[in-house]
Design a protein that fits this description.
Strand content: under 5%
Protein name: MFS transporter
CATH superfamily of the largest domain: MFS general substrate transporter like domains
Radius of gyration: 21 Å
Subcellular location: Cell membrane
Distance between the termini: 31 Å
InterPro entries: MFS, MFS_dom, MFS_trans_sf
Main location: membrane
CATH topology of the largest domain: Growth Hormone, Chain: A
Keywords: Membrane, Transmembrane, Transmembrane helix
Structural class: mainly alpha
Number of domains: 2
Length: about 400
Amino acid sequence: MPSPYRALFAAPGSKAFSAAGFLGRMPLSMMGIGVVTMVSQLTGRYGLAGALSATIALAAAVAGPQVSRLVDQYGQRRVLRPATLISLAAGAGLLLAAHYRWPDWVLFVACVGIGCVPSVGAMIRARWAALYRGTPQLHTAYSFESVIDEVCFIFGPIISIGLSTAWFPEAGPLLAGCFLAVGVFWLTAQRGTEPAPHPRERQGGSSALRAAGLQVLVATFVATGAIFGSVDVVTVAFADEQGHKGAASVVLALYAAGSCAAGLVFGLMRFTGAPEPRWLLGICAMAVSMIPLLLVGNLPFLAVALFVAGMAVAPTMITTMSLIEEHVPRAQLTEGMTWVSTGLAVGVALGSSVAGWVIDEAGAGAGYGVPAVSGAVAVAVGFLGYRRLSRPAPRRGGTVEQHSERQERHVA
């Protein structure tokens, strides 16, 4: 039987936009850690390096949904190219400011500008949705994209840190900018698979975040992002306490590898019924998988525990994208996907900050309490918002027959 993943690329143009999306997403995992490595090498100020990285993440969290909202209204080509040029210009300013030791405020202004970077993953998923909406292939496409995300997070930090330490300090962020430029401009050159824009007058000008279901997803993923952010910070500290700080990258890569493997298998499966119960089960699995981390005593055990924990990540993310399809009007799909990424980014910033404080006060072992508590919060939010999430969207692009079909599926 032919692979469902191979069948995805039978659609004309799918290979090209997927390849462009892979390049355009690499900076997501390279820029933050690249800035930390660059600034710490050039100045020795880890506090400044961390603050700059957090500024990029928060700026992207604010600007990302607005860029995606404009994409839904005017199309990917018209919006992504100028937004990317702003981000690239700010990135060049950051490299110059860091190299020539310009005042700190210049660095922060440049990092705010970098936050205009578009959510390339949302753009690619929107193209898959335009190709396969309403078919089983869309589930496989979302699974494939989640695997690509994990591949970026496995190799991106290794490349960025390796270049900045072995070549010159600015090399990691510089290559991230090159990936962004090539990926976005290659993607936007492909007009045949670009989703049709939906001008403001046809969607009422309101934000996708007004959808009750999306509000639940974003709130839950703030807590989920806190899991990711705190796990990263605590794992580095734990490896340092064990005398093998360099092993932290390998252990965290196994976390992403577990998610990658699960995403590949999940994409081969076919499900019936509403996705909401599967989503809630995935949130619960992510929370439960954090409990063994409280018992870690050595790096091998931690590596195994994180690999197993990672297996709950990709299936939950894939199901989340399916839920966005259900609860956000079609004319605001890209914005809706970006809001979930924004929730994750805010959660990562919160989780890493809280975890760092706990580590300073009580050590790395106690730090794993932060992802455990974050998982419990995610479960609580998921259960509290489940009734709102399980209601069909009252307003969405589509025919009356499509609305009736969704109603029947949720009742079933």
